[in-house]
Amino acid sequence: ATAARKSLTIGLIPADGIGKEVIPAARTAIEAVGSDIPPPKFVDLVAGFEHFTRKGVALPEETIEVLKNDCDCALFGSVSSPSKKVAGYSSPIVALRKILDLYANIRPVVSVSPDPSKPSAVDMIVVRENTECLYVKQEQQTVGEHGREARATRLITERASTRIGQMAFELALARPRKHLTVIHKSNVLSITDGLFRESVRAIPAKEPRFEAVTVAEQLVDSAVYRLFREPQIYDVMVAPNLYGDILSDAAAALVGSLGVVPSVNAGDSFVMGEPVHGSAPDIYGQGIANPVASIRSAALMLRHLGYTQAADRIDNAVDSVLREGQFLTPDLNGSAKTVQVADAIVKRI
Ligand code: ATP
Ligand code: MG
């Protein structure tokens, strides 16, 4: 499929806050890879809380249509989440995941080894199911005999568990260690987590090429403990939505700054890169946001589309710039600006 493209149309949705500073930086990194990808065409698209306050819509219909009809992939910046519930507003990124059926959230967490010939201390991918679990948001409150009672529905389906499992096996198969850890809590939630676990474990019998992947299981609580004690045991982890959310933020803490952790939201027909961090209102406007998370998200997006060489070139350039330490933003104890870091990376590419 990748060989067939004459050009690569990339939707850019900076959205709010530092998204507007780091997405342009990611664009320059993509432009720098040259002929490793088909000629890129960038389409600027709007969404976000700021757009909502000005125009009354967080995710314009036009943005959705252009993404669906014209784009091969997209890069999303960040949205600021209002501290209180705002009437009529709902998060555009959550809506986009649903509309484009981006059922997997893929977050590689990698530390940069000081010596390029030595392996990284932390090198894992957290694969989080993106569409169900407690995030179906079916909650209710009633009044019982002893006061108020609140309940939430947790949905786990065989279909969603199987497709996220397949994506995780695929990612594990492409890595040197080929190791997959299935995260659950089926000792307590034997029906819901039991179905997730069974669905994932059943995959290799149906797709024999996945038999090359070694599979382990872990209860989510012990997984968090071991993640902090011995992160090197993990290669690829796959988890239902809520556990994946918690594990991927926890894993990000192992590598220093939110400003370096990328992700993609992926489905069967679309992929959207997105830095893990938010809109960082505390530093927005100073030009000091770390562009690495967005640049790595661009690399991850290209990797997912099959442009391995382009992705490697971007990642290697980022690694060298971080290792050298001359151009680092303040979150990494440096004093460089966003554009200086991006320029240094572009030069390396
Ligand atoms: P939001 O509601 O949009 O998530 P937030 O206040 O939670 O906003 P985050 O963006 O989640 O802010 O960031 C948390 C902290 O990490 C902030 O102090 C922010 O400045 C810092 N941070 C996040 N991203 C970056 C980045 N790319 N470069 C530098 N610092 C960052
Ligand atoms: Mg935040």
The oligomeric state is single chain
Rg from C-alpha positions? 20 Å
Runs in which pLDDT lies below 50 for 5 or more consecutive residues are none
Main beta sheet: strand number and arrangement? Answer: 10 strands, mixed
What share of the residues lie within helices?
25-40%
| Main sheet: strand order | 2-1-3-12-11-4-5-10-8-9
* Helix-strand string: EHEHHEHEEEEHEHHEHEHEEHHH
Overall geometric form:
globular
Average pLDDT taken over every residue: 95
Distance between the termini: 25 Å
Strand content: 15-25%
Number of beta-strand segments: 12
Tally of DSSP helical segments = 12
Named once each, the bound ligands are: adenosine-5'-triphosphate, magnesium ion
Structural class by helix and strand composition: alpha/beta
SSE layout and pairing:
Blueprint: E1 8-15, H1 19-32, E2 40-44, H2 49-55, H3 61-70, E3 73-78, H4 92-99, E4 104-110, E5 123-129, E6 139-144, E7 147-152, H5 158-173, E8 179-184, H6 192-201, H7 203-206, E9 214-219, H8 220-229, E10 236-239, H9 241-253, E11 264-266, E12 271-273, H10 292-304, H11 308-324, H12 338-348
Parallel strand pairs: 1-2, 1-3, 3-12, 5-10, 8-9, 8-10
Antiparallel strand pairs: 4-5, 4-11, 6-7, 11-12
Helix pairs in contact: 1-10, 1-12, 5-6, 8-9, 10-11, 11-12
Bound molecules: adenosine-5'-triphosphate and magnesium ion.
